[in-house]
Specification:
Layout (H helix, E strand, L loop, with lengths): L2 H10 L2 H14 L2 E9 L6 E9 L7 E10 L5 E6 L8 H5 L1 E2 L1 H13 L5 H4 L5 E7 L7 H17 L8 E10 L3 E6 L6 E6 L1 E9 L3 E10 L3 H18 L1 H7 L11
Helix pairs in contact: 2-7
Amino acid sequence: MSVDKVCQWLDRTGFPLEMEAASAFRRAGFEVRQSFTYPDPQSEKGREIDVLATQPDFMRVIEISFIVECKASPNPWVVLTSEDALRNYNRLFAFAITSNAARRVLAERWQQGLGKILPHIERPSRGGYGFRQAFAKDNDPAYSAAIAVMKASQGVAKDREGMPKLAFAFPVIVVDAPLFECSLAENNSGLNLEEVEQSNFLFSVHTPQEIGCCVKVVTRRKLNSYAGWAKELADTITMELKEEEDKAFGKRRKPTCGA
């Protein structure tokens, strides 16, 4: 069998898109693992996710991860949106899948102020509430991709025994076909369809407890800029929670001379 035929086969798979996603997050400064196996919180079996991009942290108290599922397909993708998709929905839950320790810290800091994290948590009521692949038949790959990244995010952010971790897991789906946002036009006069490079939608899953979060959808063309933005967000969280990390290690100021 010729090399050309193998290359043609590879081009028809999702491997090139996975490699590009991993490369984009590496260039942005993340530690990246491909074909990462995580513990499925529902079946307790090992499952595989395409890319795990983690904020480098020697202390391993603050763990910030972007869990990426890549979907290579010629069919377009559609995020269904409305003006009130996130109305009355807790913005802390929409922000990320978190460990219990991280959720407690965010709730405690909410009263004092979350600093530069707050703009990332605050978001308008308008947003996505559904994700579909156009022309899909029985098994919509959009739904299976959303389930995969949510379960993987929960598995990565799961609390550990002993020293608590401040874990934040952000689910991401990368597509290489056109991405559209669909909404109802004014006066119910039809549908608005707009092509975009990135979007997000609120999604929940029962494992068996319910978890919900906004899932980001990013096109291939937007990968590099999104990975850069993700690193800025990870750096912001790390900086703002430095005090909590120090407390976890019981650090104290070193005494100065004469003290």
